[in-house]
Amino acid sequence: MTTTPDPYTPDTTASAVTDALTDTNALLGRVDTKASMLLAGALTTVSVGVAVIAKTRLPGLITAGAILTVALIAAAVLALITAVRPALRGNHSFMRWATAPTPTALLTELDKTDREHAAYQAQRLLSLSRTLHRKYQLVRLATDLMRAALTTATLTAALAAIL
Question: Which tens digit of pLDDT belongs to each residue from 23-43?
Answer without folding.
Answer: 988 998 899 999 999 999 999
